[in-house]
Amino acid sequence: MPGRTGYAAIAAHYRQKIQSGDLQPGDTMPSLRQVCDEFNVAQTTANRAFRMLKMEGLTIPKAGVGTIVAGPASNNIATRVALHAATGKALDDGETSQILEVGTTGADELIASRLDVAPGTPVHMRRRLVSRGGVPVHVSTSYYPAYVIAVTPELTQPTSTGGSRELAAERLGVEQEKVLEEVTSRHATDQEKAALGLTEKNVPVTQVVRTVTLADGRVVEVAVKVAGGSTILRWTTSLRPKA
């Protein structure tokens, strides 16, 4: 790759291959020597590129083998908000979103308490399957209060909007301010196993319940994301104090 010898460019090259599916989970990455020869760089440059991929959760070391591609990764909401702001879409390269179900349902206790409504209150739901490189990553079911649907009727249709929360926040004229993400483990339901391609009888999954609040204190979305055990859930939190 003439002219692309920086460690960031090398990392981007392999990141694209992983996200597109050219490199699959479990595949062995080239050795540092092979990277040096291909890109005509020093080993320190190749090592920095591989360290970047490891820090992003895209690769992991494997004893006796070297570096391998990690299982599919599911970005957190902060990453998706940043992606939408930069590109106009909340999905990363190589990701696809398939709407599985839309409709109105009575809020159960988990959803009702976070939307601050009584259990059984009708709320709108959208269930989608997100895949990366053709591999199912997670099933996510979003629940919206009536005032969100009033300004974003598109959410009642079985088509992707490219950023449902962003669209709702824009229509409401209020920015997204914070998200609470609660992580637990449980066994997958039959519906979740079918969507994620899980075949064992009792399959442990990771459940992330996120509650997104607007700057005016209203909740714009409560979502339940379910990922199989091979999926990496990634969070990046800044440790620098705010100016």
TrEMBL record:
- Signal peptide region: none
**InterPro entries named in the record:** Bact_HTH_transcr_reg, Chorismate_lyase_/UTRA_dom_sf, Tscrpt_reg_HTH_GntR, UTRA, WH-like_DNA-bd_sf, WH_DNA-bd_sf
Q: Where are the transmembrane segments?
A: none
Q: Does the keyword DNA-binding apply?
A: yes
The HTH gntR-type domain is annotated at 4-72
This protein's source sits in the domain of life called Bacteria
- Write out the entry's keywords from A to Z: DNA-binding, Transcription, Transcription regulation
Q: One Pfam family this chain carries?
A: GntR
Its recorded name reads GntR family transcriptional regulator
